[in-house]
Amino acid sequence: MPDNGVARPRSPLQTVDRALEVLLSFTERRRDWGVMELAEAFAIDKSTAQRILAALAARGFLSADPVTRRYSLGPTMWRMAAVWERAGGLAALAQRVLEPLAFQTDRTAIFAVPDGLHVRCVAAVDGGGPLRSHPLVGELYPANAGATSRGYFAFLDSNERRALISGRVFATFTGLTKVDEQELERLFVETVAQGYAYSEGEYDYATRALAVPIILRGRPVGSLSLGESKYPARPDDVRDHLPALQAAAEQLSALLDNRANTAAVARQTRVTRAH
Q1: Beta carbons of 151 and 212 less than 8 angstroms apart
Q2: Whose CB has fewer CB within 10 Å in the chain, the N or C terminal residue?
Q3: What are the backbone angles phi and psi of residue 39, rounded to the nearest 5°?
């Protein structure tokens, strides 16, 4: 505080950081902001809130509704997301975790994200030889068959999961595929209790899989799994690698949440201040 008791103006860097905080505040549940709402939530005055929202809207990061005067995410966010994806995006980020996991465990490591009643493989690394004769990226795994999908669906809120699954007719892939709704729910509850999903021959008779959820801010956003062919037999069980899989899932969650970069920035800031 200066001697006259008037607060110093926010520095340009602080202003940029506050604008980024506003962008990061948008979620599935928080899809728009009004000026007064934002001011109260961020403990700033109305004029500051208005300037931040207007500046972001001017560059297309936000879009202002002329009737309600509420701000939602704008077209620039879509353009930047598209650029990121064309540069490798989610798959490139996941690859940093999948490669060491695959070669450490000598299994195929798969990262899958939700796609309706399936999860879709967005990145995969073969550590112990190909799991399939075709590329895995893009393959869909149904909610009712296999650990890769169960590692995601089991950890959804039970009401959300039931809303997705109730009344659905599921396909049968092998004699071990579960299609009964109550039996599936029992499997989901069992999976949550043990903290991981395991399957053998549900989606493909010749494969086994072990999977855990990728949790981002308390919510599952996908699954990380290890897959293997049952033939030839191996000296170890894929479940022996659960600790490595769980550690990799935490690493991937940190990357997706930008926690690793945030920690690096904080360390660099401390070093700079020390000098």
Answers
A1: yes
A2: C
A3: -60, -45
